[in-house]
Amino acid sequence: MRELISKIQANLGIQSNRSKNISKHVFWSFVYKGGSIIANFLLVPLTIKFLDNENYGIWLTLSSFIAWFTFFDIGLGHGLRNKFAEAKANEDTELAKGYVSTAYYTIGAICLVFLALSLIASYNIDWTKVFNTSNALKDQLELLMPIVFGCFGLRLIFTLITSVYTADQHHSMQGKVSFIIAVGSLFLIWLLTKTAESSLLFFGAIFSLFPVLILLGLNLYAFSTKYKQFKPQWAYVKKEYFKDIFGLGINFFIIQISVIIMFSTDNLIITQLFSPEEVVPYNIAYKYMGISSMVFTMVLVPYWSSITVAYVKKEFDWIKNAMKNLIKFAIIAVILIVIMVLIAPYVYKVWIGNLVIIPTALTICMAVYFIVTVLYAPFNYFINGIGKIKLHMYSFAIGAIINIPLSIVLVKYTALGVEGVIIATIICILPNLILFPVQYIKLINNTATGIWDK
Predict the structure, then answer these.
(1) Domain count across the chain
(2) How many CA atoms lie within 13 A of 268 on its CB side?
(3) pTM of the model
């Protein structure tokens, strides 16, 4: 396999060590992500058959609801990613170890508080009203929610290891973890369909715990082998390390909250304004059109930390060439999206048959959404990589503020229906098509001032 990768690199004229490393991890990302996409696609019809449309809609909404709480890492994951990469680039092992230890212990403490609060809240909330479902599921939801909250807290801690791998230029590790989780989940749901009766509680408990076990295993392996010298230790937890990570992380924190509001509230809005069943076609269209974004992200992901290192070392020519290539990939991704819209009816028929009907208008709206995100993504990753994210933060924060009310207005006072929810999100992110490229041009040409340079 190494010889194959080397031949591909030689044929493409890839010469620098950084570019060779990126291309290697892009190759493996395609392998892992391709496997994940196939597994996740096969997972949908199996899950619908096991749970039925209503329960599957509840699970999708519940998953989105839990995703809102990713802000509890207060941006430390992204802050660790950038600061660890900088410390490694400057060959400062002690500083890198301090960042890892501080991030792990801080998020660990936060998750303990989160878990206590979630347990108290989960027994005082009528989850059937939250998810707009029948009282028949009340007992199951009361038992399931503490399990889901607990597993989420643990996952928030253990996911930090992927930030360490990515910052250390092992860009495909996150894809490998997702692949293992996706394939394992597919096997588990297949096993459930053969051995168990339909149960939202049983399904939710298994699918919440499984990713935690995978990530725990990776942490134990990493900190006993490759990253043994960076193993989290209380002695290395210091206020100044927290300030370094959190100083950058707080901006990522606000961006995370904004992204959650814009992208993870859709399922709950649809559930409340329509029904849990309507969440299913929406998510299927999202998953299908999202393939384009997944493929493009495989190319993008390695560049974040590589740009961080290149920017620290002032290798601006490499960054310019990298951005030119990413823009070309973005255009290819847009063409792929258009093709996907044209063949969508045939794909849906093969994929889910008559289990769910997906309106053409919904597919087109999803396509427009992904075209917008793909076109500004290269500039977004550059900005994230160098940490000049103040404008990025304001843009997403404003979008988050108007997203929910705009979604409700478009659904209630127009004939758009469910499509109004994704159209509202498109409107909120549209300014980024102008703001992010302009900021990149100013930063790379050293003409950025004020908000453009923060």
Answers:
(1) 1
(2) 18
(3) 0.65
Q: Looking at the domain assignment, is residue 11 inside a domain?
A: no
Single-letter amino acid code for the residue at 371: I
Asked if 128 and 141 count as a contact pair (C-beta separation under 8 A), the reply is: yes
Residue 234 counted as domain residue: yes
Q: Which of 280, 130, 155 is nearest to 214 (CA)?
A: 155
* Residue at 8 is within a domain: no
Q: Counting beta carbons within 10 angstroms of the beta carbon of residue 91, is it exposed (0 to 12), middle (13 to 18) or buried (19 or more)?
A: exposed
- pLDDT tens track of the chain, all 454 residues? 455 444 444 443 444 555 556 666 567 666 777 787 788 778 878 888 777 777 777 777 777 666 655 555 556 677 777 777 777 777 788 888 888 888 888 888 888 887 888 778 777 777 777 777 777 777 787 788 888 888 888 888 888 888 888 777 676 777 788 888 888 888 888 888 888 787 788 888 888 888 889 999 999 998 888 888 888 888 878 777 777 666 555 666 677 777 777 766 777 788 777 777 777 888 888 888 988 887 787 777 777 767 877 877 788 888 888 888 889 989 999 999 999 999 999 988 888 787 788 889 999 999 999 999 999 999 988 888 787 888 888 888 898 888 888 988 888 888 788 888 889 999 999 999 999 999 999 988 888 888 888 7
Give the domain extent around 337: 16-453
**How is residue 32 written in tokens?**
């892992």
353 assigned to some structural domain? yes
